Amino acid sequence: MSETQLYASSPAEVGLDPAKVEALLDRAQREVREGLLPSCQLAVARNGKIGAAAAFGEAVQGGVKKPATNDTLYVAFSCAKGLFSAATWLLIQDGKLDVTQPVVKYVETIKESGRCKARERFACKLPG
Q1: Which segments of 1-128 does DSSP mark as H helices, in order?
Q2: Segment 80-119, tens digit of pLDDT
């Protein structure tokens, strides 16, 4: 997929409120400017297209501090857990993931790897 297919021409094209997107970008830029974050990179997508993307501040790249860009790579470490959890809850909410079904219904390669019993269910910890 080409980059032009990934990006919308404007936030409004994908149904995002341009004023709210601008407020988000302003907030991120302010937090970098005020020193709360050394850099920030964000993208907001809807319906398979990126409606807005921006990067602020400086990030160490190859041992050298450089301006952050939309192409800057960051080490995410445990951030992936939160993103995966949020995506999982959205799938449950939309009825696209049924946690009462065996995991292998959705991830067949787990069965093949022998790491998961065919009847194992998803384990989601509820807040509280």
Answers
A1: 3-6, 18-33, 79-93, 108-113
A2: 788 888 888 999 999 998 888 877 777 777 666 565 555 5
Q: Give the CA radius of gyration of the chain.
A: 19
d(CA 125, CA 29): 34
Alpha-helical runs (H) found in 41-114:
79-93, 108-113
Neighbours of 105 (CB within 10 A): 12
Hey, what's the torsion of the CAs at 27, 30, 32, 37, to 10 degrees? Answer: -60
SS3 102: strand
Mean pLDDT value of segment 74-79: 79
CA distance linking residue 128 with residue 124, whole number of Å: 12
